[in-house]
Amino acid sequence: MCRSLLSMLILCSTAAAADLRLGPLFTDHAVLQQGRQVPVWGSADPGEAIEVAFSGQTVATKADANGRWHIELQPLPVSSAGATLTVTGKGRSVALADILVGDVWVCSGQSNMEWSVVESDRGPEEVAAAKFPLIRHIKVERTEATSPQSGVKTTGGWKVCSPETAGEFTAVGFFFAREINSRVGVPIGLVNSSWGGSAIEPWLGAESYTSNPSLAHILPRWEANLAFREQKRKEHQEAMEKWKAAEAAARAANKAFTEKQPEAWWELLYPMQPSTTYNGMIHPILPAAVRGFLWYQGESNAGRASEYGTLLKELVMSWRARFGAPDAPFYVVQLANFDGDQPKGTDWALLRDQQSSVLDLPATGVAITIDIGDKKDIHPRNKQEVGRRLALIARAEVYGHSVDYLGPTFAGAVREGTAMRVSFKHTSGALTARERPLTGFQIAGADKVFYPASASIKRDTVLVSAPEVKEPVAVRYAWINSPEANLYNGAGLPAVPFRTDNW
To answer: For the chain, which residues score pLDDT lower than 50?
Structure first.
């Protein structure tokens, strides 16, 4: 055989061999989930024998006809000492260094979850002090896909928390992890799969829209929206052509031209197709072993608040099923105060109420942030307190700490003459009004017209009244987009917004 032909055959043989690869969450410095079976997966040549070795375990398998392989490590104990995970194939291997075992939390949602540490309050100081080697972070790159994907890119794999890396971590996730790690000592891995501006619909898999009758309208609505957007695109194109012609005519005549350029406003409607971020950013990390989920999203759904609770519950149940973790805790950040140029509007109040409906499901929690937003900025910078409040829920519900994790919560309301007496749970010893007299309450009679109310604290109750309402039947608290609400419990946690009516 001639040398050139031999070289060609060698090259072809080499090209045909698949790389020995691991799933996107398996890189140096990874955190594996403690206390449950840990799937490890990847790709190789079809039929190739694969061995995975870690922490005294060695598990063997073979790649299937498509070159995919998958094994499961038996439950691992917590380990803060970095170890090596080795995957061996036929005459080749991959070794991952500095692997810890602790708790892995998926951090998802839109921009307030994607928001980085360096952009938060005292960002540079927080970054400079971020020396927490037992906290690790991996960012899934923004990826849309119309069908479920098996692979996705990450921004450089797992990063060990340090002043050189922490600035780009999800701020909410980092401050949550810092609190848990300092209180519990367990290593924390943060899987940051978030996308600013995303609605909830793209984060649900396609099966949710075909199997849940309550969501059957979502896909037809999307198709109608596509047609609407296409019509508006054509109208905009025609308007632009007329505008350009008018501008050119004015320039040729040496006349001033002050007509505004037509706006392409339709592009702001439903910017992402249902299931696309699930397909591109959640499905590729399945079936990772995780402790739980942190979710900060809802701003982009405020205009469709009435259906949000159904969507959110479906998200919780479907993600738990697909991650193989039916009891995994799922904690939601309730939207903060923001007026959106409609300070007395109620879209955000309705959305917050829908977020709280997730508590109908087991192992869920809602962190209240009604007091730490910025009414003129949809991105409040105080992510430290958001992370701390999420961590309080986890400390109580996951790690068994005896801590208060929820503010005053509506328990009941009865009429007393011209007033309503509202009772609360989770008062932690005392209700208090912070910084000024108690505010944020509204009251209404049978005419369903609400008026700002005076409110006074009586132990674990609040007496609410307004001179305009002689026979009250309903009361609300913090029930506008950006309320001035200052009711707290003895633990310094804010009261949960509520209403007693369903009008």
So the answer is: 1-15
